[in-house]
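FW: tagging you since you asked about this chain on Friday. Here's the raw sequence from the shared folder, copied in full. Didn't touch anything.
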Amino acid sequence: MDLILWRHAEALPGSETLADLDRPLTAKGLKQAKRMGEWLNRVLPENARILVSPALRTQATADALERRYKTIPGLAPDGTIEHLLAETRWPQAKEVTVVVGHQPTLGLAAAYLMGAQHVTADNPWRLKKGAIWWIRSKSMDSGEVWVSTVAVRTPELL
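HL: got it, structure written out here
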């Protein structure tokens, strides 16, 4: 299975008048999403599943792909690794799956899937805004599952 963790692009900060789920992308965030979306569209298969948090900033990031996507409440900013893994069907899914979500969940998921020790919600691996982490699992004949990193990309380096 190929799983792509895509952190939403830069968004306006929350405030007393702007709820966290309603934060839009900044002009820089729109550019970040566009760059990453263009790159992903070149490398993703047509049948890739796109799963997105209900937050406006993740929806706007995913819009850059110009593909259909499914909004998943369990991927909201307070989502858990368990929700993410269940929704993506890790590691059994046959299709490439893209998750557009938030820190710290994406960083915790990347660390967990790569076998990191001593990673906590207070100190997760960090995915930069607009960046992706592409992780692949492969079942071996022995029944063992190998997990590897295919790519780590930031919009600035595309």
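FW: The chain has a mean pLDDT of 95.
HL: agreed, and The first helix runs from residue 27 to 43.
FW: great, closing this out.
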